[in-house]
Amino acid sequence: MTFSFLSHLECSRTGERYEADEVAGTSAAGAPLLARYDLERVRETVTPAEIAAREPNLWRYHEVLPVRRPEHVVTLGEGMTPLLPTPAYGKQAGVPRLLMKDEGLVPTGSFKARGAAVGVSRALELGVRGVAMPTNGNAGAAWALYAARAGMRSLIAMPDDAPAITMKECLASGAELYRVDGLIGDAGKLVHAAVAERGGYQEVSTLKEPYRLEGKKTMGYEIAEQLGWRMPDVLLYPTGGGVGLIGIHKALLELKELGWLSGELPRLVAVQATGCAPIVEAFSRGARESEPWPEAKTVAFGITVPKALGDFLVLDAIYATGGTAVAVTDEDLLAAQRRLAGLEGAFICPEGAACFAAVDQLRESGWLDGGEEVVVLNTGAGIKYPETIDVDVPLLAKDGAIPPA
Ligand SMILES: *Cc1c(COP(=O)(O)O)cnc(C)c1O
C-alpha cells in the first residue's frame, strides 16, 4: 500500500520541477518549493469516508503528506482539533455563525506542532541528523521537542524578548538555544551563518524547506472534513510568515482537484497587528509583494514578521479568493482575548485574538454583512503567554477572608 503519493517539488515562482527524495531548501530562484502529489491516484485509492474512519490526528491525510513510510512518522498526536461554535462572541460582533478552529489543543500549545511533526518526520526520512532555525518562539519550541522525539539535534535562535516559556521548552528538550538582540530576521542571519560554518544541520526556517507547509495545510483538510467536505464563507488567519494561510489555500486547491470539496472557496483574510502589518500595507496598494516593515512591534509575537519570504503567496491567496487583509491594534486584540475568555470560556493566544478583533472590525466596516459563516483560526493557547493577558491580579484576600457580597 502506498502511504504517500508525493511526486515532485515545484518552484512557487517559476513552476520548475525538482526531485522530491533528497534534502531540499528553496528553488534556484530563491523561492519556496511546493510539494506536489499524484492526486489522480489519491482519488483512486482512498475516499473521504475511509479517511473519516481513521485515527483523529493529521496523519489521517497521509496520502497527501510527504512522508513515504509510516515508520518515519514522528508524532505526539497532533491534529484534528475542535471546530467550535463561538455564538456569544458572534452575537456581539453581529456575525452569528462564527466558529473557531482551536489549535491551542495541539501538543506544544500552538499549531506550529503541525509543521514540526511533518517537517521533522520527513527530515528524519531523508537522513537529516540536526535541524536549525530562527523563530519568534513557538516554532522553535515545537521543532526542538519533535526533534528530541526523533532523536535529532536542534539549534534554535530567537529574539531576546520572545515568550520565556518557549525558551524553556527548547532547553528542556536539549536544544542548543541562542537569544538574539534583534528580530527574527537577525536570528535568521545568525542561524544561516552557523549552518554554513558547521555543516551537519538542515536549515528549516519558514518556507526554506518544503514540508512544514505540508503539516500546516492539514488545517484546511480538517476544516473541510469537519464541515462535511465543504468550506465556510470566510476564513481569518493571524499572519506572520503566512505559512498557515498559504497552506490552507494549497489544501483547498488540492481538495478541489481531488473532487472532495464542492462550492466556492472561502474568502481568505490575513490578519496582522498595526505594529507589524506589511501584508496589509501591500494589499492596500494592490501590490503582489510586501515591503519590509520598520521597527516591528506587537504583543502578538507569532505575527511579528517584518518581511516574509512567502509574502507573494499570501497575497496571491487573498486576491484569488476575494479576501482581504486587516490590521488590529494591540489594545483591540487584548480586549478581544479577554472578551473571548469571558463569553466563550476559551483562553486563546494573542494572535488568535487578533482575528476575533478583526471580525468586529470587518463587520463594522461592512466587509462582512453578518450572514456569512466565518471561521477564525486560533493558532495557540493563551496559557503560553502568561505575561500578556491584560488583567490585574488582585491583592491577597484581606485578613484571609472573602468580603460579603
Ligand atoms: C507562528 C505563529 C503565527 C503565524 O504563523 P504563520 O503561519 O507563519 O503566519 C500565528 N500565531 C501563532 C500563535 C504563531 O506561533
From TrEMBL:
The keyword Lyase applies. Gene3D superfamilies: 3.40.50.1100. Keywords: Lyase, Pyridoxal phosphate. Coiled coil: none annotated. InterPro entries: Ser/Thr_Dehydratase, Ser/Thr_deHydtase_PyrdxlP-BS, TrpB-like_PALP, TrpB-like_PALP_sf. CDD domains: Thr-synth_1. PROSITE patterns: DEHYDRATASE_SER_THR (PS00165). One of its GO terms (molecular function) is threonine deaminase activity. Its cofactor is pyridoxal 5'-phosphate. Residues 74-380 form the Tryptophan synthase beta chain-like PALP domain. Pfam families: PALP. This is Threonine synthase. The lineage of its organism: Bacteria, Bacillati, Actinomycetota, Actinomycetes, Pseudonocardiales.
